[in-house]
Design brief:
Radius of gyration: 24 Å
Largest sheet: 6 strands, parallel
Helix content: 40-55%
Low-confidence stretches: none
Number of helices: 23
Shape: globular
Mean pLDDT: 97
Number of domains: 4
Bound molecules: FE(4)-NI(1)-S(5) CLUSTER with Oxygen, iron/sulfur cluster
Number of strands: 16
Length: about 625
């Protein structure tokens, strides 16, 4: 059984795991233990079950079979498996983006009561990028045209996705030269699945090139659309104070948790929680109010735009239920462990699934659609309120921690006084040595939040600005790194700059689809210096990644020119050729590559060295690391 001393650096996880075990609740760590030893063929990428002449496996020691039944060797099998991971990640983000475009279309047609266009300026700006005439046009008519134009990006009627135009010219030319300009969002995923069918693309290099094009169709396509449409419908994030960890739950209030990714559901739940009749009902039932909090990325979406508190990241999603204080948890899709409904059954928590494409055992299913969302949200919140009286023992073992979130690109540029120039100057002067995007998940293979927090601390100590998203952003917030006072933990230069701007040294850029904000920021820096993204003193890191989506994000970072360090090893070690291409060869192809380093102390050194090399190449003061 996993013991609470060794699974997490955070008090709330340790204490709640202890509580879960007392309650005889099985968690992700227990199941991870039960799976040991995990399959070595799968871990190295050497098993294949693409067709039913198989399943096949390659013997990594050279004694057993070296080819699958069809004749595929280790390189082909490893590459195909990785490509399918990347395709699934791209599909997940991009389908989330499509759901938002559908809401945008429904708003335009007056079929989505409760939703509206909250940021007309952003609507106009993005519509102009799509080549639409914005002057004097009715807002809803423009929203409808933009939704149509974005849907075209999903199909295959274009030669290049519209928002690729945001990338620096040098980068676009490179993609064109090597043939990886993403064409249609769905097209690239579809082609990836086609190529990995038995007997199609058996060039491990050409497969991996298509994987980069597929990942770019997410980063500069589906995810970018998801972020932009979310901003249009729900507002461009601006810095908001908030609180984080399990201590955000309130003993005397109705606690509702939203989990998943798409703000389409969580925004409506927020609206319902704020409705006067719901607050009055809560008081009538003996609660002091209604407390909405998030976990995972839909929590990040609400935190970024409204300062809604964040109860925890991926590995906290089960434990939060063992507080016994959650009256209802609503989920949409992605990263929702199928164990949650069963765990909730040990307490009084109502578990509600909301998406037509995501079902879970032991959850009640209420489908949200643009036309019924507002009404359904009120019905469900009133059920959560009714459930408050059924609570038994409540255990909220920690006090919450303060944080600031909401750093959209617009907010960062705003904090800099309207242009990226001051950041460029600070980088040139060496006060800020570079910037790193730390992204991704938790994974029970790594001590919960240890990778994120250790790497972040080391980087800011060395005057490297950190921007983070997804589950990382929760870890660093819990560690107290997301308040302006955290500059005391930063190096002198970073402390001076962040202190003058009144911002923390670690900026919360949002959910996982919001990694595209990092691409946009990197492009602005590259354009300000008239260089390519790969010339900048930047890096990416995913110290505790687990998901296919994270594999896709890492790939579009690298394909966009950002050196990226992964914590857990992807399942590729069965092919020395694939490993060498991804960790070295790609430098020659896209000017960036991956590294794998599970120890965050060592990852920090790799990143610092890389940043100093890039500074040197740019002719600005560099250090020896
Ligand atoms: O999209 S960081 S565990 S919650 S995949 Fe999932 Fe990973 Fe968290 Fe959000 Ni992203
Ligand atoms: Fe085996 Fe080839 Fe089928 Fe894969 S595609 S399962 S290697 S026969």
């Amino acid at each position: 059984m996993a013991t609470f001393e060794n699974v997490s650096i955070t008090d709330d996880a340790a204490l709640l795991l202890n509580k879960a075990h007392q309650d005889r609740v099985e968690t992700v760590w227990d199941r991870h233990d039960a799976q040991q030893p995990q399959c070595g063929y799968c871990e190295t990428g050497l098993s294949c079950r693409i067709c039913i002449m198989g399943p096949c496996r390659i013997d990594p020691f050279g004694e057993g079979p070296q080819r699958g039944v069809c004749g595929a060797d280790a390189d082909i099998i490893v590459a195909r498996n990785l490509c399918r991971m990347i395709a699934a990640g791209a599909a997940s983000h991009s389908d989330h983006g499509r759901d938002l475009v559908e809401v945008l279309a429904a708003v335009a047609e007056g079929r989505a009561p409760g939703y509206r266009i909250r940021d007309e300026n952003k609507l106009k700006a993005v519509a102009a990028e799509y080549g639409l005439e914005t002057e004097g046009k009715d807002t809803l008519a423009l929203a409808g045209e933009l939704a149509d134009a974005m849907m075209e990006d999903y199909g295959m009627r274009r030669k290049c996705l519209t928002l690729v135009a945001r990338a620096p010219e040098k980068r676009r030319k490179l993609w064109e030269k090597i043939g990886i300009i993403p064409r249609g969002i769905d097209r690239e995923t579809s082609e990836m699945l086609h190529r990995t069918h038995m007997g199609v693309d058996n060039g491990w290099q050409s497969l991996l090139l298509q994987a980069m094009r597929n990942a770019l169709s997410d980063g500069w396509g589906g995810s970018m659309i998801a972020t932009e449409v979310s901003d249009i419908l729900f507002g461009v994030p601006q810095p908001h104070p908030t609180t984080v960890n399990a201590g955000v739950l309130k003993k005397d209030q109705v606690n509702i948790i939203v989990h998943g990714h798409n703000p389409v559901v969580s925004e409506m739940i927020l609206k319902a929680c704020q409705a006067e009749e719901m607050i009055a009902l809560a008081k009538e039932k003996g609660a002091a109010g209604i407390n909405l909090a998030g976990v995972c990325c839909t929590g990040n979406e609400l935190l970024m735009r409204h300062g809604i508190p964040m109860a925890g990241n991926h590995l906290m999603t089960e434990l939060i239920l063992s507080t016994g204080a959650v009256d209802m948890m609503l989920v949409d899709y992605q990263c929702i462990m199928p164990s949650l409904g069963t765990i909730a059954g040990c307490y009084h928590t109502h578990m509600i699934s909301t998406s037509d494409k995501a079902r879970f055992p032991n959850m009640e299913h209420y489908e949200f659609h643009p036309d019924n969302a507002e009404k359904l949200a009120l019905e469900l919140v009133s059920r959560a309120v009714e459930n408050f009286a059924r609570r038994k023992q409540v255990y909220i073992p920690v006090e919450s921690v303060k944080a600031v979130g909401g750093f959209s690109v617009e907010a960062v540029v705003g904090a800099l006084g309207g242009s990226p120039e001051p950041l460029v100057e600070a980088i040139k002067a060496g006060k800020i040595r570079g910037a790193v995007g730390i992204v991704g998940c938790n994974n029970p293979k790594i001590k919960h939040d240890y990778g994120h927090v250790t790497l972040t601390r080391r980087l800011i100590e060395n005057d490297i600005l950190v921007v983070d998203t997804g589950c990382v952003s929760v870890a660093t917030a819990k560690a107290g790194l997301k308040v302006p006072e955290a500059i005391e933990m930063a190096g002198a230069g970073l402390k001076e700059i962040c202190g003058a701007l009144g911002i923390p040294p670690v900026l919360h850029l949002g959910s996982c689809v919001d990694n595209v904000r990092i691409l946009v920021l990197a492009s602005a820096l590259a354009n300000a210096l008239d260089v390519d993204i790969s010339d900048l003193p930047l890096a990416g890191a995913a110290p505790e990644w687990y998901s296919e989506k994270a594999a896709t994000i890492g790939t579009y970072f690298v394909a966009s020119g950002v050196f990226t360090v992964l914590g857990p090893m992807p399942p590729i070690t069965g092919s020395a050729n694939v490993v060498s291409l991804l960790t070295q060869g790609l430098n020659e192809v896209v000017g960036a590559a991956f590294a794998v380093e599970p120890d965050p102390e060592k990852a920090a050194v790799l990143i610092r060295r890389h940043i100093e090399q890039k500074r040197k190449a740019l002719g600005i003061p560099a250090l020896d690391v």
